[in-house]
Write a structure and sequence with these properties.
single chain; mainly alpha; about 0% strand; elongated
Length: about 80
């Protein structure tokens, strides 16, 4: 008998969570695992994501309870 196409042994990547394993989400998540906290500018520089795309991916990670976003004002 042949194995089904959904068998993890045949398709090990079929079971990954696209919410966190998409490259644009995995990059900031990996960086944050190392530094524990980062500002927006640091994440833009490290990931290479644009100012417009980064918040979308961070919001998805926050919704998946993978990160917590703290917003604070600095200066005037």
């Amino acid at each position: 008998m042949t194995k089904s196409t959904s068998d993890p042994e045949l398709h090990p990547l079929a079971e990954i969570d696209q919410t966190i394993h998409a490259p644009a989400r995995l990059m900031p998540l990996t960086y944050l695992c190392v530094v524990k906290s980062a500002d927006y500018l640091s994440l833009v520089r490290v990931t290479g994501l644009t100012w417009g795309h980064l918040p979308t991916h961070l919001t998805k990670l926050e919704e998946a309870t993978q990160i917590a976003i703290a917003k604070e004002a600095r200066g005037k």
